[in-house]
Design brief:
Layout: H1 22-34, H2 42-46, H3 51-63
Length: 66
C-alpha cells in the first residue's frame, strides 16, 4: 500500500513512509495499534506488531531515501 521500500507512487492515496521521522511513525503505529487513530486497515495490521517490531519498522523507514 505504501509503495516499494516505503516510496508511494505519485498520486497514491496513502503516504509514503520512506524518510518519515522515526518518532512520528512510531507514534502513529502505536495510535493505530491502540485504536486511538482511526483507519480503514492499519488499526488491524498494527495490532499484529509488538512494540519492538514497531520500533524496527520506524527505524527502517526513517533510513530510506524519499
Amino acid at each position: 500500500c505504501h509503495g516499494t521500500n516505503g516510496r508511494a507512487v505519485e498520486g497514491a492515496s496513502v503516504p509514503g513512509l520512506a524518510g518519515m521521522p522515526r518518532e512520528y511513525l512510531t507514534l502513529q503505529m502505536q495510535a493505530f495499534k491502540s485504536g486511538t487513530r482511526p483507519a480503514t486497515v492499519m488499526h488491524q495490521i498494527a495490532k499484529g506488531y509488538s512494540e519492538a517490531q514497531i520500533a524496527e519498522l520506524a527505524t527502517y523507514f526513517a533510513a530510506q531515501p524519499k
